[in-house]
Design brief:
The structure is a homotetramer. Chain A has about 350 residues and is α+β, with helices and mostly antiparallel strands. In chain A, about 25% of the residues lie in helices and about 25% in strands.
């Protein structure tokens, strides 16, 4: 089912943006992993609005753990966490009730759920649901770090007119520090100005991120339906706004020759390594031991402050309306921890499948 | 498990490129669907090598149906099909045994399977396994066409230096005819020359396809982990060589404004439609009723005819070797029916989940 | 994973008996079903201790719905419910910490979870977790009743020396009224006295229930791994204490001839019916339209008030100890609503698989 | 889906009794396991009709392995095996076409599959499909024996008027030798005479088996939905004719006291063991390290040689008919290897889930 990810682990995210709470149940995590709740909160804070310029909404996402952690360690039973909804101004949405917001899920959800979906905010379709994904991902990351010396980071490769090169080997080594940046790129000021301008124009803007994970050994993943690419993309495309996912050279592959794109092996201190990493650390769906590198394209926020013309389903006629309330001009920044969380879940799940529930 | 796709339906693909047979079991297809086996063979033929310039290997992929079809109709029980392997020249691979082919799965598979994977050709990692996917996809397509008036097609948007624009609304309507083309694009001669040149240089080349499916109603799919994007990408990334998947505007979204990217609704003969379709027929993971449009990036074939230097695992030293045998200079052309098959499976599965095993 | 049931629907139960809360997430229920929360509470009350003589512990199981229900109807999104734990006397368990309680999960859980499972009470292994199952089952029942005119009931066929015959056709019709009985059988006084005596002797007692569900049409379920028997037994054996499940004649089949056990068809007012129902309404794993009838064997409560000798894992020596606290002398009575809930889930899930997410 | 078992491993069984072949795909078995195909054939032979008095039909079940085994070892990829159907006399079934055989799946399958199921013999519902289960179980058993010193065996505890006691500790040790017996019980001659008599009377008879597995360590399995009981019962109830499953004392629990039924721990040569094993080696759904013991009730064969009256669906009237062809008077004997195969699959799957794909 759509809000349950069923693999070696099971993750269910639940809630509606204006209901009592959102949350998650993560099942299948090995027992005995030390979980630092402050680290979960750090990640939730990276996702929360208001952290930078990107939104005015101030949410305090306080996670209450209901099960699965005892004396600071995972028990092996389902870990449940809930975040109460506060400060949700439902009235912002009332004026547009019945009006199918352009590029939102309103209309297809109406068809699918026969009009019974919770219409307040985005209901269950809200980006707020990704808070559960972030909490689960932080737990997975803490478990992974118990086994491996990880480095995780993301940077902006494109955002409107701004662009920068894919990561080089040197950049990869420094990737972890990008997690401390609100605008993870080489020139945050330019990007901040760009987003600020977009906001002033009551518009929004899309972008593209590149994420790297260093420290994962060779041999995780599978061919075909459980390839690391398949697992990662399933989770990444579950994040609202994501419209493209690519690995390694990604888009560049379309113009490359095999003689340039191949990654030959060599021996580095007795270890088998590849001289280049065009394939982003994955071959045949399985990790090669090199950095896992992928790109994620995020569309411009659908909610913009401008007036738009769309269909009012109750009147069955077109109406011009303006979506009131607070809008993120660029959800890409808040998506960074969600994308990283998805990656942690996909990789930890692959790891556990190979090594078992209790390693 | 990696070679079983488990959703509403279950699909298992099995076999090794030099073993007795490859094949598939597709379970969960509704009973009573008329299956025309010649249509399955048509699709298999599109995937087979030797259909155009793209390879010299001549396989006759003859599918034997072992179960699930009785008197020309699906019974509701698992449909099993096998294709015997013939004409497989294992000796081509012996000279490179132990030598880790660059950008193949050899090395990660060695780590994962502890050296027990079938090493002949690509073993279970071979692109030949996608024949099972094509057969299953053709069955899914025939079932879908029982319910909807479909149109399906793909074209090349990039292939080395060649590029053409994403499909316009008019192109989409003509998409079906691209299925009859060996090189589905506006200028097949140029592309043929390009590939021929690459082959002469013993190299290979990557590319990017765009695929469209017209005729799917609004309301199929789900938010989050079962979004149409998640389902499709899981299957697309299971195809060897696929390194990027995007939807609608895809990569373009990274430079777009919300005011340009949004798809407002209007009324067209009493029906709710979107004026534009930047989102590729999917919002909130659910179909909107517009054409489903996605792009797939395929890397250059890993097997090239040039000499390459890589590690021989038995000697634990670097060796220069040449991969003998027949190579596709551009697997993109053979990938077209595989990509379309994956799309048919993903969409039919979503359809059945919503309407049930017997509609 | 073990606490997630993954079928057409997904159900996760979570919590520990002495943690903050227990609860459940039920995903995949069709949208628009009217949910009466008082009916959920009625079922929870049937499961709660203290409802009859069977335990002294007084829990008030108050369910808080966190998601998936809006304006009294299911939305189609995950339904989450939590029940806070109160009145849990952890100290009762401290004196036996490290002592492997006979016939509890203590020892195998210690091996499996490497000592990290929550040891308070039964932790995640507690029968208290079945509260989530009951809540989910009540929702499934309300959905089923939206489609069918159901009748559901259970009676005691054996409890120590007490026994009564399997249900006749006439009994079946009256089955629903057994749900109002604390001790659902022909002679509640005798059974009450028997249990009372067992309690005075600080002992416990096992039993066997028979459950019937009337009103389910023919054609639900599947052959093999998704047979109605397979689905039901998977859920029934997930209930702590259940050690036997049988269908229709159940145990009697072992002594029967085919000529006696077969259920021939006849025409009853133009409808195909069976003259007898030895098979309990299921053939080939699929419902026949007759009453679904099954038996459940429940072992005596493992926690008894007598002193027992078992191994203390910390000292690695045998110790005689007495388990303090409140014990149910016969968990069978509290198991009735849990068993009925499991049946409702299994059948509703089979129904939805055949008719789809939105019928 | 019903003919795919989806757990840590995936098993799909396919085929129809009068189609080209039956078979199975088993996916998720660890790489490198030595597979002796003669051992698979031994198990298939135990299941085949004609091995004893129990049927006249002579099938030669020759398994052809199509994938997943290379040079005598599992590769880690899906193992596919097919058995061609020969000697299937479809004409035996023609005379009863449209006549709903009592206690067969004909009628519910008609409703479910809308008349499109293969009607020859039992079609996909045939007991012949269990050949695939036996082959898969033999592979699982060989893998398990690679890790543990197993002993597996079954005996008849009831068959019509014949009955014998559940296994004692001493019997358990000798359990393995029961596998060599066509009629595994203390008095095979009596049982043979009984079955012979039933056959002469053109009738059939049910029975009950007890199966034991020794050598499985403590700690496998899970609470709730993946309990060893839940896993085993799901697979056991997928075997046509199985109508009851119980563990340890099974039915006896209904009359027992906790003080008798509890299994206290003691120290045996430094190891934690239970003095008794009333619980059949499973507590809280997890193995205790003691023998896994369960009972299976099998109903009398539905196909009997007597005339019976049932509904002819084409005429919509009752007709007396006789099912021609060869009937097993007691399928219990042929069910023994199927039951043992199901147990091997369930346990090996639980083992792999805990230890991972490559141990």
């Amino acid at each position: 089912m759509s809000s349950t990810w069923h693999s070696f682990m099971d993750l269910t995210i639940f809630g509606e943006s204006h209901g009592p709470a959102v949350g998650m149940v993560l099942h299948g995590i090995e027992p005995g992993i030390v979980i630092d709740e402050t680290k979960i909160h750090e990640q939730l804070k990276r996702r929360a609005p208001g952290k930078s310029l990107t939104s005015e909404r101030q949410e305090e996402d306080e996670l209450e753990i209901l099960s699965g952690i005892y004396q600071g360690r995972t028990t092996g039973s389902p870990v449940t966490g809930i975040i109460r909804n506060k400060n949700a101004r439902s009235e912002d949405y009332e004026s547009i009730s019945g009006w199918m917001r352009p590029s939102h899920a309103d209309y297809p959800a109406l068809v699918k759920y026969h009009g019974f979906a919770d219409p307040r905010g985005g209901g269950h379709f809200s980006g707020r649901l990704t808070a559960g994904l972030v909490a689960a991902g932080s737990i997975a990351e803490q478990a992974l770090r118990n086994h491996f010396d990880l480095s995780v980071g993301s940077h902006i490769v494109k955002l409107g007119s701004y662009s920068e090169a894919n990561w080089s080997a040197e950049d990869l080594i420094k990737s972890e520090k990008y997690r401390q940046m609100n605008i993870p790129c080489a020139d945050p000021d330019t990007v901040r100005d760009l987003i600020e301008k977009v906001r002033e124009e009551k518009d929004s803007i899309g972008g593209k991120l590149e994420t790297a994970i260093l420290g994962i050994p060779a041999g995780l993943g599978d061919p075909f339906f459980d390839s690391i690419e398949s697992r990662l993309s399933q989770l990444l495309f579950s994040i609202p706004g994501v419209k493209g996912v690519s690995f390694g050279e990604g888009e560049n592959f379309a113009g490359m020759r095999g003689s340039d794109a191949n990654d030959p092996y060599f021996l580095s201190q007795g270890q088998i390594r590849t001289r280049t990493n065009h394939n982003g650390g994955i071959l045949g769906g399985i990790t090669t031991g090199e950095a896992i590198v992928f790109q994620t394209v995020i569309k411009p926020t659908s909610s913009i402050g401008m007036a738009q013309t769309s269909v009012d389903i109750r009147l069955m006629e077109e109406k011009e309306k303006t979506i009131e309330g607070r809008h993120d001009p660029c959800i890409l920044l808040r998506a960074v921890p969600v994308i990283e969380a998805a990656a942690m879940l996909a990789i930890y799940d692959a790891y556990q499948k190979d090594t078992g529930f209790h390693d």
